[in-house]
Structures are given as C-alpha cells and as structure tokens.
Amino acid sequence: MNVFINGESIAIQTSENKVAVVECALMKFLTTDQQQRTFAVALNSDFVGRGDYAKTLIQAGDSLDVLFPIQGG
Questions:
Q1: In 3D, which of 23, 34, 31 has the Cα closest to residue 56?
Q2: Do the Cβ atoms of 9 and 2 come closer than 8 Å?
Q3: pLDDT tens digits, residue range 4-40?
Q4: Beta strands in the chain, from DSSP E residues, in sequence order
Q5: What is the CATH number of the domain that holds 18?
Q6: 39 lies in which domain range?
Q7: Is residue 23 part of a domain?
C-alpha cells in the first residue's frame, strides 16, 4: 500500500495489505538520526501523539506530515 509522507509516496508492506500503523510508516521514511530527533506527526492534518504511533492506523492514500522543530531567533 502507498501512503504519502511529506508529499512523497512511500510503499508500506502490511500483512493484510489494508492497514498499517503510523510507527511502521515513520520507520521506513525517517533515517536513524531523524528517528532520534524530536518531531511532530499529523495524519491527514490531525496531530498524532508519540504515544499513539503504534496504535494509530493508516490506510492506502493517507497523508502523514512530519515536522521537525526549527531553532533560531
């Protein structure tokens, strides 16, 4: 199944080929360094808390936005 992360189409393999969890998509998209940084996630424009990544389901065509904080003044 394909989902979009920051506008990029990502293929996710799932056992049922119908749903996956946010955590699965993020691990495929983010580098190891990025996984260890602070970031926020929105699924179809709705915020998903870090504690919900493993239980929030996504379906084909869903859109995830991953946002990293920007420091500056």
A1: 23
A2: yes
A3: 999 999 988 877 655 778 888 888 888 888 878 888 9
A4: 2-5, 8-11, 19-21, 40-43, 46-48, 57-59, 63-67
A5: 3.10.20.30
A6: 2-67
A7: yes
Cβ–Cβ under 8 Å, residues 58 and 27: no
- The DSSP code for 24 is H
- 73 lies in some domain: no
Total number of domains in the chain:
1
| Within-domain flag for 72 | no
Q: What is the pTM of this model?
A: 0.80
pLDDT in tens, 30-71: 888 887 888 899 999 999 998 998 889 888 899 999 988 887
Domain contains 60: yes
